[in-house]
## 1
Amino acid sequence: MPHEVALLGPDGILVPVDMRDFGPQCDRLHARAVAPFADGSIRLLGVISRLLLTAPDARGIPQFTALGYWLRPSMLQRMKHAFDDTLRPGQVATPRGTAFHLPPQNVDTLFVYSWALSVLAGNSNIVRLPSQISRTTQILCTTIAAALAETGENERHLFCTYDHGSGLNRTISALSDLRMVWGGDEKVRTVGTDPLQPDGLSLGFPDRQSFSIIAAAIYADLPVAGRDQLANQLYNDIYWFDQMGCGSPRVIFWLGEIGDLADDLFTRLVNVARSKSYKTEASVSVSKYVRMNDMVASGVAQTGTRFGPELDVVNTSLSPALAAHHHGGGFLISTPLGSLEDILPTINRQVQTITHFGLQPPQLEQFAKSLIGKGGYRIVPIGEALSFEPIWDGVDLLAHMTRRIVWR
Amino acid sequence: MNFEQLLQSPAYTVPARERRDLILQELNTLSLHHYEYCEPYRRIIDGLWGGRPGADTLNAFPYLPVALFKSQTLQSASPEQIRLTLTSSGTTGQAVSRVLVDSETSLRQQAALTNSLTHILGKKRLPMLVIDTSEVYRNPSMMSARGAGVLGMMRYGRDHAFALGPDLELDVDAIRSFLDRNGDAPFFMFGFTFLVWAKLFEASAGQTVDLSNGILIHSGGWKKMVEKAVDNEVFKSRLNERFGLSRIYNFYGMVEQLGSILLEGPHGLLYPPNYSDVIIRDPQTLMPVPHGTPGLIQVISLVAKSYPGNSLLTEDLGVIEAVDPGEDGWMGPGLRILGRLPKAELRGCSDVVASHAA
């Protein structure tokens, strides 16, 4: 069976190319790396930001707005300064070389974050796009292609797609100095067996679980507008990627007396989902209902409520590995929590993001320290679960995407 | 009216509205029984249905998603009483349903099936041509839903012959020899829809076989038939043209409600037996929809007692197209099956591409 490889062309369309021409395409990236935060890199990402925030087909898609803001020039300058601050006198940053990005199949914007940071680091980049290009991914491709054309920066970036069976993961890995693998444990494990350049670095971002903590008493004191705002932020965290983003919460822990507060918040949440016309596929609706029955039947959950096809909630008491019960598409576990320490037995290496509401900085700092050696890498306010940041899964990405030259 | 009394009425004759009232009382009794003896059922009633086993109307009666039989052990009888475990014929690698049957439920299943089949076949047992291989029930390791189905049906015939060989190849000699002995008077045929089509009809092209005295009862998924662009109408007319076979009855049933079969009546629609009913629900809201609106099929039946299988929400889509047609005495809701609920996939960061990675 002939294997296919397609490259992103100047008009944003993936064009099939002969496998024999693909090697030279990769080779030309070699030795094209530039200085970290080079002007051209900042210009390129700035154009993408502008297009995402203004182009008719991109404007208004919330994930794109978030990405657009993240890449706006003032933000890039801030990142540059933060990066420069990490350099001590007698240190010069240099890119690793060629970076190979293997983004997940369906969190459309993630490949842009992974790529953009590597652009800032000064690397050449090969990005493997998902085999199925969704409508939103296509808009991103078109935007990137337009920005590359406008800034003339296309010499050090290659966006492609190819068959799993083509062996190209191995070929590209062999010439890469850095590899960013986003996906399930198995994918990270499998790709990890393909050797990089001898001094290459592979960063894996495998399966993660996330949850939220809400201080019940603080929620109880919120006026209606504040409650709706929190529901809105929770909506973004949960529904942007059908609750399948690594940072999307699966469990809501209520610190303190719940009373009818959970019902109150979940009713508001489902109202937000409706107001945003969130669509639940029929089979997802049914399989969530099956899951709810299953968890109650086996005694893991005690009760459950279907707030609508958009949201099923089961109520459980605290037990380890609650976040392992994942469904997606609007399925939450609601659990009371006596104190923050009570949560520690449920935390393991798989935990990524812990979003919170109503906790004070001293509590948060103490909580963060209590996670040392356990897991859980981001403790951020509700509404920021999916906000990408340069320290991801506890890894300082820009630091890993570059090397240091020391002189004295 | 209880199950036994409902079986006394001629099958498929109790009008829709009337039967709802008739079956609700025993349904409530059965629900209480499961609530007492089946812990997962009790948890579901307590946790999702307000703690009340039963309801005032059929629409409000608790239902279990049928997929629960794949993940939970659901039994309302003590383990010593369980006589056999029925399993669904799941695709390889998928979880299978497990249905636990004691003697009492087994008898109820037989009584129910007898009630349905005598409606078509008459009270006297007829010679039977099975459109399958005898291996399907002889080989105990193959004792799947198909084998159990064949074996269950064989009880309603005599002088059995098998139309297919061990590798499901057409055994024309066996068919001719059966017809030589029995072809001049009514005889009973049973097979799974796809086998009847692919292994009897398609494989017998160019041959003359007279099945005009046959009464064919068939069942099974239509998925493969849809791939061949064959619907019930085409199926019936082609079999009639080829074999002179005019008495053909499809039925819809599942291992989780063994014994209860929705049988083909007027206009190719499927009718639940007297002790049974169908509710169509919106797949999103799970609320009942009006007749004529497609949705998820909920099947209700009084048969099961050793496991809580009286009210099940399936993942099949259907629509009620007629109610109480009255033709040849057929009463009740007339269901058309529209196929499985299409699966949508939720993916995210944790995509599983390694399984196809080279």
## 2
Amino acid sequence: MSSAQAYPLQDVAYLYDGTLEGLLSAVFLAYERHEDPIDVVREDEYEPRLLQSAIPVETDFDRANRVRRGVERACGRAAFTAIVRASTCEGYDTGAIVYRFVRYAMSRPESMRSMPILEELANPAVADLLRLVKHAGNESERMRQFVRFSHLENGVWFARVNPNANVVPLIMGYFAARLNDQPFIIYDEAHHLAGVYDGRSWQLVAGDAVSVPPATDHDRQMQEAWKRFYDALAVDARYNPELRRHFMPVRLWRNLTELEPRAAR
Amino acid sequence: MDLMRKLELLADAAKYDVACTSSGSDRGAVRGRLGATQAAGCCHSFTPDGRCISLLKVLMTNVCAYDCAYCSSRCSNEVERAAFQPRELADLTIEFYRRNYIEGLFLSSGVLSTPDYTTELMIECLRILREEYGFRGYIHAKTVPGTSPELVDVMGRLVDRLSVNLELPSQESLALLAPQKSRQQILAPMRQIAESVAESKETRALARRRNTFYSGGIQRAVGDRPFAPAGQSTQMIVGASPESDFQILSLSAALYRSLSLKRVFFSAYTPVNDDARLPRTDAVQLNREHRLYQADWLLRFYQFDVSEIIDEGSPFLDPDVDPKANWALNHLECFPVEVNTAPYEMLLRVPGIGVRGAQSIVRARRTAQLREQELRKLGIAYKRARFFITCNGSYAGGGVAFEHDALRMQLASPIRGGRHGRRADHVLPGQLSLFEGESFASKAPAVPALPPREKALAEERDALLPEWSMR
């Protein structure tokens, strides 16, 4: 560690734990150590570059909060919301993109301050972040479309999803509002994260596996009804499977009630 | 009959209704009540043909007193008939909604005894949903032609969107193919809906404003609902009757203008009945439908006037080039435009730059000079746009002559999705075949003798587009 401090331009990578707080702590550390890391990566994904030193980052809520306040003071709430959304994305460079965005946000020239930072679409630091924000937005929309609840024997509504970004925290509010009288769980099997709504408020629970009681008989009937409805709607003369795949990617089919048997084939 | 079979029959009968949008209505959630809507709508699934399923789209009943040539539920067809009980359908809607299968209900119906009786059944179902179950999701209802205005008014206050099917683009075709429906029967409720929507909007806007001069008299009653807050839409069948694209687009432009419709849907005629009044073809004019929708988008989002898209002289849209590119090719004097200074309206006219792209350009150029690299990042189709723009004065469309024919070659693009289904342009009879043995004669036995109406249309089309000639 001390050697890195002695040579501030040395090639370093910061390894964080994959959480937003960890990522923001990493950003804080870069300021503290006067370093400019090339990579900011989740520790379980890190692939060392030649001659690169790796520094593990300790997740610290206070430090993360200081970064949040700093960004909000310099560029407003919307900029921080964008960071939150972007940080849900998978991908090796997510951390680095967020880091570079914060760097730019804190060092914007005075002359630009009158314009919201997210309007600077042609700036590489902003454009990269907006690309992630868009991806997270698209994936959230897919979840709003394709979450399928089933009613379990213990009265809970349960849905299993496999998004390619960690978006369950972004969609819980939406479902908790519109289905506010039914306790439900949305379990993300790709990120091992469950959003749990108990009828009053929602929270996130991390867990590697989930075991749930079977669905009620009535629920199985409704699933059958939905499948029959889906099949009845097809117009053979217009058959266009590419278009369907475009709107409804095959990777999501296995958790879609109406396509279940087809996904297995 | 069990519920499953009913659902299957009544969904099957409703599937040719095109509209399945859940947009235009923004109603937040309320604690203790089920459902909410968002302005952009939400598609919950997609059929094998790629159409979106956003609502539980069913008929109240497929029993019908009318005998429209193109409809599978017409009274002269021998099909299995069924009808939902209002409560049964309301329950099913709630069950599907709780599982996030749907965004709400789309309710249409065949005519069971009289239009008013049918509408009362539909209203009962919607009333159960809205009043008993407190459902706040999306509801789209079709009015049955010939319903009395009082019932339309009741219905309008239960739904988000109300629509009346125009069915066919002209009065003559309507008289021929749907003899029991009249122009008056269709236009009267459309006018009524347009007026009620406008009035409801105005009243509510006034009631919201605290310090208005009028506010004393028009306090909103508790539980008073707006009339069809997501407006009205309509649909017409394309290809079952001889109208040209020019007539169809002029009609839809007039509808947008005079009745402030939210959407006009086009449905490529799909043969379901054997009827002498209908075109004898197995093909579905999907590519024509696609071009019509492109033109429709130009009318609604790109500030085009219908006269700029199509004129009486060439009344059909170009099958090879989309209507926007076509306009650009015919107005080369307006191009190239400088992306760093051109007004928004002009950017919208550039092929390859859409509404999003134009907005992004306007935002981005306030802080940066845009060159190719930046434009590509903004998500515009640079490959197409480069022929029509300059970036800081430099033109990147070099290598291709800046004239109509050369650019047309660059912009011509076949419509994707032509590999499946009974696409009208899928197989061109008479086109060269590499395998003589497999002549098309077996698939498309001689061009059948066309009825005079069809013949006139075919001649018109042949004269216009010799390369698409059918004979």
## 3
Amino acid sequence: MVSACPACGTGVLAGESFCERCGHDLSAAVTAAACAACGSAAVGADGYCENCGMLQPSGRDHVETDLPGLAGVSDRGRRHSRNEDAMALAAAPAALLAVVCDGVSTSARPDEASQAAADTAAGVLAKRLADGDDPQAATRQAVRAAAAAVADAARPGEDAPACTYVSAVVTGRKVTVGWVGDSRAYWLGTHSALLTVDDATPGTHMLTAWLGADAGEVVPHVRTFTTDGPGAVVLCSDGLWNYYPEPESIAANALGQAPLAAARHLVRLANEAGGHDNITVAVIPFGQGEPGETTVAFPKERSD
Amino acid sequence: MTDFSVRVDQNKYLPAGSQEVHAIVTVEASGAPERAPAAEAAEVIIVDTSGSMSYGKINDARKAAQTAVDTLRDGVYFAVIAGNHQAEVIFPHYGRLAPADPESRQAAKQAIAGLRADGGTAMGRWLRRAADLFSAHEGARPGAIRHAILLTDGKNEHEPAPEFDANLAYCAGKFVCDCRGVGTDWVVAEVRRIGSTLLGSVMDVRRPEDLADDFRAMTEAAMGKTVADVALRLWTPRAATLNFVKQVSPALEDLTGRRTPVDELSGDYPTGSWGAESREYHISIQVPPGQVGQEMRAGLVKLVAPATGEVYGSGNVLAQWSDDPVQSTRINPRVAHYTGQQELAELIQEGLQARNDGDVETATARLGRARGIAERAGNDETARLLAKVVEVDPETGTARLKRVVDKADEIALDTRSVRTVRMRKDPEG
């Protein structure tokens, strides 16, 4: 359904380490990475960059997912001791989808919360879309399931784990965005735009909504837009937009590149700007094939 | 075949923002059960026959050179050069190296027996002559171990400095040369320059009658070499700068200026030929400032054959920034030991220089401190020689120069100041 296991052809989810049917190790399929510090392609098998010498991050410190039609990069940044961001991507026949979650640092085990939310949501999205649900309904189901997964992770005697959520489902020339918290979606194109409105007290990083046992009932924002031409959707955590809040500046650094190259480039820019937070960027380019059919100005909301 | 192992001793942890990385690289070559095939070894024996060698010294030099010839294995290619203000190949007579066999050894020893002390001293010319012999041999037998022994007793008086410089530069890389100074009229700094350039040892031989044993030992050591022209290849990151590369054991040798670039980020430093032995190098690299938690490779050290690109061994010099001062302020004991050994050599050389310049105060301070370091670090021989130059009151610690110092002791102290001792097993004990 999502992408195929290279060994047995069963549908597997991006981010999964092993095929559930045949147990094939999927990590080997990950594209050889460029250096997270300097961008050089010369990274030795021992993990050190052959240009700048930096040891490449391992495990969740630096994660890259490269699928046909979309890619994402999640990085620890330069100041935090671990990566509390998570992402999950999938390339299904009818839709490309991506989820980015940012664990709330002051909560317990935010890294587990974000990973559980992203994996759960991507799984639900892929299944619902395959079953014929429309993207908006699928997104609401996905957020509900992700919120439940994070809430279930709470243990007595500690602050409930919490994280943000943003997802994008791209079908044809439409994109459906859902979010809770301050992780963002951008449209990059002729008229680049921020597609989300942060659930946060303006001017601060105080969240007014999140996923977690202490969040009450989570009501996601869900919106569908139609493109006005070729471009790309970018999902990101605040590790990127703290430094690059303007859609135009993100567009200038991402358009015209393959999705993985664009995501790596944006992550590197955020690191070079200071890397004070974890950085996660997912890039889904689309619409390039059919500009002649474009009739609707972007962004135009379909609902909510 | 010879196996090389490379070990790196360092404290990789740096405080945030710190940029200086130090490491001691120990290279051990071992497992050479079969010796180098004889035909792949070449030896040139250079004997000083200047006028000052008369009165007995020439006699001992003859014996020493003959002993060296006797020590050559069958099939080793060799020649003997007599040096004064000129250089004469006294054996063989056909301008190439001769393979050792009973007859050639006999002929060479006969030629040596005929040596007479007469004329001046021009060591650069002797070496150039040896270099040409080696070059011709190398053309026929690439990869041969090329080694020379140079014996002198005097100052390089009959060769203008620019010519000496040019001759030395001409010889660099063509062969390894161990140097011996006999008597008290030779200049340590001059001979040390030869040893440094040609990657060989320099030692004083106090009594001419000890020469024969010394020549035998040197020739045997040369016969034990199995790999020629090994380079230490050092890669450093693009944003880093190299502070220095020094051999620190068995003797100090600054290799920093001897770099041959390999590519933008790598360079080769010559180490000469290797038998079963171990040497240590001190490498210091300036890296760009890093963030706490980051780790970088500050250097990649390899032992290579530059001609073929074969890599014999390699090791990583690392840097990791830490906000734990317990981690980042610790100095690696081996780095500390060899830093101390370098300081000791500097103190001795500066102290002796000051003493010769009549600056008693500086000489006393430097040599007095040197004696303390030598005793604590286990440089027993150096401490013994220092004791002949400077007295230290055990009660007050006050140092005083001795009035009368045997010139041979001073030369020995200067010559051996660059020889280091290995770290004691238990540095704290």
## 4
Amino acid sequence: MFGPGIWRMKSFADSVPEIMDLQREINRLFSNVGQSTALDYPAINVWEKDDSFVVTTELPGMEPENINISVTGATLTISGVAKADPLKEGETYLRQERAVGNFQRNFQLPFQVDSKKVEAKYEKGVLNITLPRLQEDLPKKIEINS
Amino acid sequence: MSDKDLQKSENTAVSEKIRNVKTFIPRVDIYETREALFLIADMPGVDEKTVDVELEKNILTIAGRVENGRVKEHALVFSEYEVGDYERTFTLSDEIDREKIKASVKQGVLRLELPKDEKVKPKKIVINAA
């Protein structure tokens, strides 16, 4: 009497399109996990030593004047424009994988930066920004009176 | 900036190095003119001393060795990219005049000019009116 009724199977079959929809939706939701978007360019590495941070990033083939670095308070901004080789007429790219165009990225640092002492170095296509911590912002040792 | 994958991808086809480093595929632009093939490869961290270009028959291999990207006396606290060597191989379809290959490296970008052999350069054929 309570065997696998045909009506139950039917109701499952009816919901298949909905299940497929749900699966598609979930796949779409996770499809770009682990992939970077244009907003994440350039990728950075952050290095720390006592009272300064060093941010390194790979920006191959740029002219130093095309890279803009600015620091306000605890925010570091790296922006710039990467250009492709201008082609003459009749020449076409057979393959174009290198990044071209404008980019901008902001980083929130965990401390106030002494913006006067920020140094940037660009060699071999790797940008190196040294960000010293503002002296007033350094933790102070509190003497305990006995 | 387009929405394509902007991270370096690892080259899993190459044989493993003795040094414990990853090998990445450099992103490459190639364009062709009547006289030559131009290849531009992004290899941040390499300079003229650490890059190798090899042409064997029609197999072109570009490789670059990168010093570890560490910052002296600093500890890595946040990382979005890895530093490693580069290697990529191309099969060239045209005959290349290997005596005249020019290569230069500037700011981590390798530029190769591969001039076509005189014999295979396209010749314009004049058609005479009958």
